[in-house]
Input
Amino acid sequence: MNEKNSNRNGEEYKGEGAQEQQEEMKDELFEAPEQEVIRLRSELEAKTKEAEENYNKFLRSVADLDNYRKRAEKEKADAISYANESIMEDILPVVDNFERALVHANSEQNVESLRQGVQLIIDQMYAVLKKFGLQEIKSVGGKFDPSLHHAISQEESEAEPDSVVKEFQKGYLLKGRLLRPAMVAVAKKPETH
Output
């Protein structure tokens, strides 16, 4: 009984234990898929757990981002709402001085002292506005600049043509950007008859 046999893989084996070897190989073939299934289930469970953890991290990140966005929007809204708080604090003393001047005007007969008091208040107001970047546009005597001036009339004048001869309303820059153009009259050559 020493004849040569071959298994499914084409391997040859000899002898009396050939049938026993074939049975062992069958058992191994049938055991291997069961072990493979167990291993795959274990890997699947691990990957499922990892996917759940990643999904939970994702949800937390989305919630954190949403909370950050809401907090940033609230901070922005607060910044806009209270942006003028500082300027208001500086303007309130000017308003107080106007009220004092009004009380003083009602009790005094001296117009000159009232005029001086109002001039001091105007100077105080300009100091506050300059502190926040307001700059007056100097117009009269200068060349007309359409980016800074708004011409509302022309006047015959001996001054150079296209120069500003009269200012009806002051113009202002805020931190270098035009806030309000000056309303001016522009010189033109006198008509010769």
